[in-house]
Give the backbone structure.
Amino acid sequence: MKTTEDSFKKNPVKISVITATWNSGATIEDTLRSVLDQTYGNVEHIIVDGNSDDSTMETVRKYADKYRSRGLELKWVSEPDNGIYDAMNKGITLASGDIVGLLNSDDFFTAPTVLEKIASAFHGKGNEIDAVYGDVHYVNPDRLGKSVRYYSSRAFTRDRMRMGFMPAHPSFYCRRGIYKEYGLFDISFKIAADFEQLLRMIYIHRIKTHYIPMDFVTMRTGGASSSGFKSHRRIYAEHRKAYEKNGVNSNFFLESLRYLYKITEVCKANLH
């Protein structure tokens, strides 16, 4: 394995990874271990916990020495919040890295080289890019080695945001200054604040993005935005709200085209 010292010298940018948690005792260790196993060494991992009453924070504290021995920073705050997007906003505000990304508390990095690839992209392209994104895949919580859906961001373009397309948000890493300039998550959105924020950044303000053809994150199914017909209805309603807020023209027909594309994602999952 490449040493963290060599990785830091080659890619000096600091990456802040934000993880919002609440009663994630059953899964948070996978998340922490996947950050600890990264080959890139200049990493700050910030846990923003919503005052869990299970073993979540006990597990987080247990990893403090392990992070320290690898030269990684592990920080946390545990207090009541106003939901996951509020927690993410807290984490971004606390971040000190050049680059900021989000890793959910029931997800984990697919490979130990993910952050190294991200840092290398920013290092290699200098100021040519503001953000990078890649792919993710979903697994059944009871069968982590079996992909049930592969979400590729390869087909994403700025114009396709009018059809509801967005880069896989757990793979999105951008310069911290972008959040300062264009704003954090709008917590009036309950399920699609990530879409609204990316619409604002990418479609409205036209930040410069770069696609990395790599599977970044393994995600367990069953999250608020990944399960059920009712969830998809809520997503569509909040997409409409996002379009209206940002003055973007779209309609039901354009949004429905996105679901045809999702059929191909399920097919791809069977090949991984």
In short: The first strand starts at residue 15 and ends at 21. The chain has ten helices and nine strands.
